[in-house]
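Following the same procedure, sequence and fold were stored together, as reproduced here:

>
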Amino acid sequence: MAPKWCQFAVDAALEYDTPKIVHIKSKKVGFINRLIQLAIITYIVGWVIVYKKGYQEFDSVVSTVTTKVKGVAYTNLSAVDPAYITVDDTTPYDRLWDVADYIIPPLMQNSFFVMTNMIITVDQTQGTCPEDPNMYGSNCTTNDDCTKGAPITNGNGVQTGQCIDNPEYGPDVKTCEILAWCPVEKDVKPGPRTDRPVLYEATNFTVLIKNSISFPKFDFKKRNILESSNQSFLRECLYNAHDEELQFCPIFQLGYIVNQTGEDFDTLAFQGGVIGIFINWDCNLDRPAEECRPRYSFSRLDNPNAKIAQGFNFRFAYKYKINETDEYRTLTKAYGMLFEVIVTGEAGKFNVIPLFLNIGSGLALLSLATIMCDIVVLYVLKKREYYKENKYLYVDDLDDDDIIEGDNYRKVGYDMQTLYDSTSKVDGTTVASSDS
């Protein structure tokens, strides 16, 4: 004889369950059932189909961006109170600045950089000179402190092995001699104040942003320059988020962009930073194409509270020759604002397929009402044992010899006739059941 566990496993594997419909005439259970069904229908119709536009198919935006900055400024540090100037020679800073001077590099992908502050070191040539004492590992007392041929970490050149005086920083200061572009950069911002950039007038510079987008699935294309705009409008307009007409102007004042991020322009321009210009295209293509318009927002992307390596800067050099033999360069450490143009968006258009899919999903969710009510009836209500007796019917298999011709199957084995064709009432609740 097979073990009991084996027999149990075989019986469990070869059982068959068929649904049984039980009509429970209870106002409490009926109310719970309709309430859950109503919640599911409201979710499908209100949230999925109407609010989330479940009747539409969607496509993501494909975008290209070009920018053009305009503005000129004249700086004259020699006219500033010397108490606010930190450089000995202001000549490199007394000049006119136009787009070719402060937009570096001239062309970037989906972004542009505006130089607002700088440290300029002129007439550098290759030779030997003392290293900046502020560089780690550059200070010395004897030649043994300087390793010939070894670069100074984060320094300006390669050591010659000599420890020499550096009178520019004091009579008793000695640093390692290096082979480099000399004189080395003195990393001190020039002024005109310790909290104001050289090109503070950049707040009035403007940028024209031309953004072309498309939704390939729907063969839809558009620009952020509206079709209703004309040449005179573009010459005179400046973006203003609170003006009904100017909120679609593609020309932005740099000071306005920075102020919209909650930052102070002079503070940000002095140390540098990264600004995000967000253009959002969320379009309902079931409506007229004129209603598909961009929405702009602005945010600072770098961390303004960073304790080290704060801001944004880099170096570039302009090289030239004197007497066609001696090579010189002007080194500029540029501080400024990197503007990143980020385009997002999604378009939707009516399609019967997603509509039917969402309706079908909603119909399937209605089965949750039955499941929730079963849990309440069988495990929560006081009469749960009574409902269990009426919901579940266990029937053993019968041999052919046990079947009496013309007799009712329920008279053999279990006598369930009473539960099958009668109505029972307990504590005022009526339960009528039938097999199906």
About this structure: Residues 27-51 form the longest helix (25 residues). Residues 409-436 have pLDDT under 50 and may be disordered. The chain has ten helices and 17 strands. Residues 386 and 426 are 8 Å apart (CA to CA).
